[in-house]
Amino acid sequence: MQPLPDTAGSPAAGPYPDPDALAKALEELDYVTDPGLATALFLAMGLPQPILLEGEPGVGKTEAAKALALLLDTPLYRLQCYEGIDAAEALYEWNYPRQLLRIRVAESGGAGVSEEDLYSPEYLLRRPILQALEHPGPRPAVLLLDEIDRADAEFEAFTFELLAEAALSIPELGTIRAQFPPIVILTSNRTRELHDALTRRCLYHWIDYPAPERVAEIIRRRVPASSRPLALEAAEALRRVRSLDLAKPPGIAEAVDWVSALSLLDIEHLSAASIQGTLGMVLKNREDLEAVAAHGPAWLAGSP
User: Fold this and answer.
1) Is 241 exposed, middle or buried (CB count within 10 Å of its CB: 0-12, 13-18, 19+)?
2) CB–CB of 127/91 below 8 Å?
3) Rounded to two decimals, what is the model's pTM?
4) What are the 10-residue block averages of pLDDT along the chain, 304 residues in total?
């Protein structure tokens, strides 16, 4: 990785003077972006302000956070959201087994243990949000709240208010305030509508499924052994697949996996036979497989 430019006297976005420079740097790490997304990430770094990335599964929302952390040479703290997630899994919890062991060791020696001894930082289990707030710099960490739409509305609201202050109050220890507030990236697959209080305070960017030419470029970067004609044919085939009403339309990750498998099989061009033998790399649902099969492998290969 080439050294980052000097950031003295500049905001968090300082390593890169404009969105074009950021986009070029991301592409050097094989994350292919577009001007809209590059601008949104640049602003999220520079303002700083949380950014909400929405789009269908597999369009590169999570990869954007990973690429940005790699580019800035800063930690990525990822919180995978799901239904029922609570504050303890996002913030912190106390290591009760270690605390209990400390009490028993003290009692066996005839000594006592104070509350201050038990509730000290060494017994604190730090979860992603607290880890991001405590990051010592010099650049802010990247905090990824992945699939925030899968959490319930109460957790969504609580999390955002906490991040807006870049601080966390722990009753036993006091307030922990971030010296370097993290770059916060939220992703959503739109399984439910997010609350207006969240969306209006975030930068927003919709990531659409890329055009076949861009998908082919991404494939070639991820699978260097693949031929350009095969990558483009696979991208066009997936465009046809995604035109159908499928339960789980394939994303870019499936395109990369598919071309990886085809290359391993020494296939340089799509054919009906190669499609029939490898379609399970693309579609992971029986009904979707049947829907595509109804059109025939020749249709998927683009044959007349």
Assistant:
1) buried
2) yes
3) 0.85
4) 39 73 93 92 90 92 95 96 91 92 85 82 93 93 95 84 84 91 94 86 92 93 90 94 91 92 91 88 91 88 72
CA distance 278 to 260: 11
CA 205 – CA 37 distance, rounded (Å): 7
> How many residues appear in the chain?
304
Question: Environment class of residue 40 by beta-carbon count within 10 Å: exposed (0-12), middle (13-18) or buried (19+)?
Answer: buried
pLDDT of the residue at 3: 40
Going from N- to C-terminal start, the domains of the chain cover: 19-91+127-206, 95-119, 212-301
Domain 19-91+127-206 matching CATH 3.40.50.300: the answer reads yes
Are 180 and 136 spatial neighbours (Cβ–Cβ below 8 Å)? yes
| Per-residue model confidence (pLDDT) at position 12 | 56
The pLDDT assigned to 83 comes to 92
Amino acid at 247: A
Q: What does residue 270 show for φ and ψ, rounded to 5 degrees?
A: -70, 145
Are the CB atoms for 183 and 142 separated by under 8 Å?
A: yes
